[in-house]
């Protein structure tokens, strides 16, 4: 049960995922959720430190792709700005979008992690797809869609026993 509901790792923000740590964890590819993971829900782009992290991670040879439940036009615009391949309408927590993204981007499931802010979407989808999962704290969750906000209280409870793997 633990392996369906809980992430393999938990960090505060994606910027804690340095190339060295990813290598230590056996991760060569990252599937990235967009809203509240890379950027605030209503904003078109990530903040400066996350843009820099994307550049540095890519430069280190880590493969990156967006996997979002968001609709095509909005996510494709973001993916274009970030120069990343993307899967929109992924219907997480179902694992189909995660599997499709790995297939389309030649990512080895043994060395791929799904990164996202929602236990009941990103982490379940990654776990169901049989890959590593990394939970991050949501960026400004109070700005989200009402349906997503409904999931936050039970999610906060489930996060209580989790310890963050943040940098010292
Ligand atoms: Mg999200």
Describe the overall structure:
The chain has one domain (2-159): Rossmann fold, CATH 3.40.50.1000. It is 39% helix and 14% strand. It has helices at residues 2-5, 19-24, 48-59, 72-82, 96-104, 119-128, 146-150, 152-159, and strands spanning 9-11, 29-32, 63-67, 86-87, 112-116, 132-136. A 6-stranded parallel sheet has the order 1-6-5-2-3-4, with helices on both faces. Strand 3 (63-67), helix 4 and strand 4 form a beta-alpha-beta unit. The longest helix has 12 residues, at 48-59. The structure holds magnesium ion (MG). Magnesium ion binds at residues 33, 35-37, 116-118.
Question: TL;DR?
Answer:
By secondary structure, the chain is of the alpha/beta class. Helices cover 39% and strands 14% of the residues. It has a single domain, classed as Rossmann fold (3-Layer(aba) Sandwich).
Please describe the topology of this protein:
Layout: H1 2-5, E1 9-11, H2 19-24, E2 29-32, H3 48-59, E3 63-67, H4 72-82, E4 86-87, H5 96-104, E5 112-116, H6 119-128, E6 132-136, H7 146-150, H8 152-159
Parallel strand pairs: 1-6, 2-3, 2-5, 3-4, 5-6
The protein binds magnesium ion.
